[in-house]
Design brief:
The protein is built from 15 helices and 2 strands. It is mainly α and 304 residues long. A two-stranded antiparallel ribbon has the order 1-2. The longest helix has 24 residues.
Amino acid sequence: PYNVALRLTQNRLAQIQNQVPPAVVSAATTHYDGQVAAVRQYERIEAPIEKIEAPMSRDGSAEGGPIDQKRKMIAETMSSMMARSFITPLFRTQWTSRDTDQYLNGYPGKKDYPALKDNLDFYMNKIPSVPNGDYIDNIHDTWFGKYDTLEIHHGYIQWLFPIRESGMNWDAQELQVHEARAICADATAHGRVLKSYELMLDFYGMELANKETGELRRGINWKSRFAHLNGSKHNHLRITRILKCLGEMDYQHFQAPFVRFCIEEAFNNGTLSGIRRILRDDWVCLVKNPAKRKELIEKLHEYR
């Protein structure tokens, strides 16, 4: 499957070269090179794809064990990852609509692998994030306010906010349904998810005004952090992940207050004008509560 995905993306890149500006093709080529590297890492770490159906994993563990299940999960999501990395502005709306529908509908047909539990173990403070990460309690205690670290480190966000989709950190595992249930059922682990949210809110110049309702207000450092967020596209994508994670971790009631706060700052106050597009195209659509989502979409229509 991953070799097929490589060929498909090569063909797709060839097809769009005469349809889009050179700068877009150059960016797509850069993404392609990164994905090839990820596939080669997969080849080094995991057994060959043709071994998946064998009754024993390459390391000798029985079929259905953690390594075998992780290998199957990677194989199933590789094609989706390769396609996702090639989305250009021309195809963005169609892709994000499909992606959002899958999220809101609970990823129909997506398998849960009971033997995979990295996210649960991380939120139980049993294992550190990788690469170059730490245990969750240490991250909360020592990374708060360390804006340079939070900006340049690209491996922690998939651990703090796991979702049922693959990210660009191949050391992080997709969230499994049984993990989300176990984290939500454990008061300490569930509370750690809230602390992760507060950590990133501070990074973005925001803070919780009410931990029960999720209502937000500006943080003390809002001017400098808003200025940073306006021009930081990869942080816009991080927020997409955060909103999805909130919806998986019984914090879905925090989604609408976040989007509402962003609408106010982006359109009424003009302090977050750099997030207007992704706010309209992505974030508002991720609110799981249908009534709240409709209300926020209608609010956005006032600014068209």
